[in-house]
TrEMBL record:
CDD domains: LuxR_C_like, REC_NarL-like. It comes from Streptomonospora nanhaiensis. Residues 3-119 form the Response regulatory domain. The modification 4-aspartylphosphate is found at D54. This is Response regulator transcription factor. The keyword Protein biosynthesis does not apply. InterPro entries: CheY-like_superfamily (IPR011006), NreC/VraR/RcsB-like_REC (IPR058245), Sig_transdc_resp-reg_C-effctor (IPR016032), Sig_transdc_resp-reg_receiver (IPR001789), Tscrpt_reg_LuxR_C (IPR000792), WalR-like (IPR039420). It comes from the Bacteria. Keywords: DNA-binding, Phosphoprotein, Transcription, Transcription regulation. Pfam families: GerE (PF00196), Response_reg (PF00072). Residues 148-213 form the HTH luxR-type domain.
């Protein structure tokens, strides 16, 4: 069972999120909080698998709360849930260690997908948010792209293939199917990639894959390359 902490100062929003989560028998809301500070204390007390955290709240906003949750409950994945899709919020949330970013106005199915992805140790960005992040990264980032290319060049051919598909938004299972690998092998490659690149999670790895040019503007990545190892 995936245990979820819901942090939002609007009772109606919390009720709506609860009703969506109730559609999945494998997910349950174990605690709720109406402000960021209370959310941090709930995360410390309940150690949920995932915390869904609103950005704009009294006492402590969601971005500060997310960063604090990562400190007091490092096993809890944090997903920012908000109506605000501006790039500055997205980039600040990711820089603070958030594992996902969802818009309240998005498809309810994205909420379930996001919770499950983060609970399994992955990351999730709603498609609209991902597009905003990539557009922002494309603006005047030649130096960053060059640096990203240098970091990626230290990976093996197979690791670059896995990173490219990760950047295209594929799950470990989907990457395995594309590269004809079992899921456990893919997980091993992903762990090695994160360590070798010095990134904290799949979101940062995916951004680096785009910066390095491993994924095209349509979100496509190559399949297995000749002699991949």
């Amino acid at each position: 069972m995936v245990r979820v902490l819901l942090v939002d100062d609007e009772a109606m929003i919390r009720a709506g999120v609860r009703s969506i989560i109730a559609n999945d028998p494998g997910i349950e809301v174990v605690a709720e909080a109406a402000d960021g500070r209370e959310g941090v204390e709930m995360a410390r007390a309940y150690r949920p698998d995932v915390a869904l955290v609103d950005i704009r709240m009294p006492v402590m906003d969601g971005l500060d709360a997310a960063a604090e949750m990562r400190r007091v409950a490092p096993g809890t994945g944090v997903v920012i849930l908000t109506t605000f899709g501006e790039e500055e919020y997205v980039l600040r949330a990711l820089a603070g260690g958030a594992d996902g970013f969802l818009l309240k106005t998005g498809d309810p199915r994205e909420l379930i997908l996001g919770v499950r992805a983060v609970a399994e140790g992955g990351a999730f960005l709603s498609p609209r948010v991902a597009r905003r992040v990539l557009d922002e990264l494309d603006r005047g980032r030649a130096a960053e792209r060059l640096a990203a290319g240098g970091r990626v060049s230290g990976l093996t051919r197979r690791e670059r293939e896995v990173l490219a598909l990760l950047g295209a938004g594929l799950s470990n299972l989907e990457i395995g199917r594309r590269l004809f690998l079992v899921e456990g092998t893919v997980k091993g490659h992903v762990s090695t990639i994160l360590k070798r690149l010095g990134v904290r999670n799949r979101v940062e790895a995916a951004v680096l894959a785009h910066e390095a040019g491993l994924v095209d503007h349509a979100g496509n990545a190559p399949g297995p390359l000749p002699d991949g190892g």
